[in-house]
Specification:
Elements: H1 5-8, H2 17-24, H3 34-57, H4 60-67, H5 70-103, H6 112-126, H7 129-145, H8 166-201, H9 219-225, H10 229-247, H11 255-274, H12 281-313, H13 323-339, H14 348-359, H15 362-368, H16 370-383
Helix pairs in contact: 3-5, 3-8, 5-8, 5-9, 5-10, 6-8, 7-8, 10-11, 10-14, 11-14, 12-13
C-alpha cells in the first residue's frame, strides 16, 4: 500500500505563527540545541526578572516572601519548562501514531485518501494565526481582568500595598501571560488532535477482531494518548501549589481536602485525554459483531467435521500428533479473542500513567510537611 508523504511527516507542532516567530528570532537553527535553548530562554525570561526586581526594589520582608512563594517557583521553574520540553516528546508520539494508522493497514485502501485529507486539515487548522493570536489575547486579558488580593504574597505589591511592585508588574504582564498562553496552546493542539481522531473514526476501518490487543489493532492509540501525561503533570504542579497557598491546608491535618483538587484534576484529565477515543466504539462494535458471526459459523462447521472424522469415521486413528486437535484449539482461541474484544481502545498503563501524573505533586508536598516527616520518622523507628 502506497502511503502519502504527508502522513510520514505528520506533525501538530511544526507550524503556526508561534513556530515562525521562533525561526525569525533564530531560536531554530541547524546545529543549535533548540529545545534546551528555548527552554532556558523562556524560563529565565519569566522568572529571573522577578528575582532581580525583588532584590533591587523590595525590602527584606518582600525578598523573604518571594523566596518562600513556592507557587510562583513551581509554576515558572517546573510547570513552564515541562510544557516546553514535552513538545518534542508528544509530537514524536502523535506522528508515530499517524504512521501506524497508515502502515498497519487499519485504514482500507479506499479510505487512505480520506486519511490524508484529515491529516492535511489538521495541519491547516494548527497553523491558523488568528487562533494563536486569540490565545495570546486571552492570556493577557485574564491578567488585566484579575485583581491580586491580600491572599497573594507581599512581594507582588509596592510599599503602599495597593499597586503592583516592579516585580509584580513583570509577573502580571510577562510571566503569567506566558504560562497561560502555553497552557492554552497545548489545549488548542489537543483539540486539533481530538478532531483528527474523530475524523479517523468515521473512515472505513479494517479492524481485525482476532487482533491480540482485543481492540482490533487500535490499542496503540491509547498508548499514544498517554504521552500527554507530562502536560497533566505540569498542570497538576501548578494547581497543587496554588491550592496549598490559598487554602493553607496541611496534608496531615485534612488529607481529603488537601488531595481533593488533585483527585478532581485526575478525573478531568482522564476524560480529556482519553475522551477522543470514544468515537471508535462504533467501528469496534461492528467489527466485534461481524467477527462473532463469522467465527460462530466457522466454528460450527469445524466442530461438525471434527466430530464426523473422530467419532464416526476414524475411531482407531492415533491421537498423538493429530493436527485436528491443534486446529480446534487454535480456532477456540481465536473465537475467545473475538468474544472478548473491547468497545474502547483500552490499555491499563496509559490510564495509570495519566493518573500518576495528576497525583504526583502530592508526594513532594507531603514530604515538605514537617508533621508528615515526623510521622515518617516515627514509623521508621518503630519498624527498626
Amino acid at each position: 500500500m502506497d502511503v502519502p508523504a504527508s502522513l510520514h511527516d505528520f506533525s501538530l507542532f511544526r507550524g503556526g505563527p508561534f513556530l515562525l516567530l521562533r525561526r525569525r528570532r533564530r531560536l531554530l537553527q541547524p546545529g543549535r540545541p533548540t529545545l534546551l535553548w528555548r527552554l532556558l530562554a523562556l524560563t529565565l525570561l519569566s522568572w529571573l526578572p522577578l528575582l532581580l526586581l525583588t532584590l533591587l526594589r523590595a525590602g527584606p520582608a518582600g525578598i523573604r516572601t518571594f523566596l518562600l512563594d513556592y507557587h510562583v517557583h513551581t509554576q515558572l521553574l517546573i510547570s513552564l519548562p515541562v510544557l516546553i520540553a514535552a513538545e518534542r516528546y508528544v509530537d514524536q508520539r502523535l506522528s508515530a501514531a499517524v504512521r501506524q494508522l497508515a502502515s498497519s493497514e487499519l485504514i482500507e485502501a479506499a479510505g487512505l485518501g480520506a486519511l490524508d485529507t484529515a491529516a492535511r486539515k489538521a495541519k491547516r487548522l494548527r497553523s491558523q494565526g488568528l487562533i494563536e493570536a486569540g490565545l495570546l489575547l486571552v492570556s493577557y486579558a485574564l491578567s488585566f481582568m484579575k485583581r491580586f488580593s491580600a491572599q497573594h504574597p507581599e512581594w507582588l505589591f509596592a510599599s503602599g500595598g495597593e499597586h503592583l511592585s516592579p516585580a509584580g508588574t513583570w509577573y502580571a504582564a510577562v510571566s503569567l501571560p506566558l504560562f497561560r498562553f502555553l497552557v492554552l496552546w497545548w489545549l488548542w493542539r489537543g483539540a486539533v488532535w481530538a478532531l483528527f481522531l474523530f475524523r479517523v473514526s468515521r473512515l472505513p476501518l479494517a479492524l481485525k477482531p482476532t487482533h491480540p490487543d482485543m481492540t482490533g489493532g487500535l490499542r496503540f492509540l491509547c498508548v499514544c494518548q498517554g504521552s500527554f501525561s507530562p502536560i497533566i503533570f505540569a498542570l497538576a504542579c501548578s494547581s497543587a501549589s496554588a491550592a496549598r497557598r490559598l487554602n493553607h491546608v496541611s496534608p496531615t491535618e485534612d488529607p481529603l481536602r488537601y488531595a481533593s483538587p488533585l483527585l478532581a484534576l485526575a478525573l478531568v484529565a482522564l476524560v480529556i485525554v482519553f475522551g477522543p477515543l470514544l468515537p471508535f466504539w462504533s467501528p469496534l462494535l461492528k467489527a466485534k459483531r461481524r467477527g462473532e458471526l463469522r467465527f460462530s459459523a466457522l466454528a460450527a462447521q469445524h466442530s461438525r467435521d471434527f466430530e464426523r472424522r473422530w467419532f464416526e469415521g476414524q475411531a482407531g486413528r492415533p491421537l498423538l500428533g493429530a493436527p485436528d486437535f491443534s486446529s480446534l484449539a487454535d480456532l477456540g482461541t481465536a473465537f475467545d479473542v473475538t468474544h472478548r474484544m473491547r468497545f474502547f481502545p483500552w490499555s491499563r498503563w496509559p490510564f495509570l500513567l495519566v493518573t500518576a501524573a495528576a497525583m504526583a505533586p502530592m508526594v513532594p508536598l507531603l514530604i515538605l510537611d514537617r508533621q508528615f516527616l515526623s510521622l515518617l520518622l516515627q514509623l521508621v523507628q518503630h519498624l527498626l
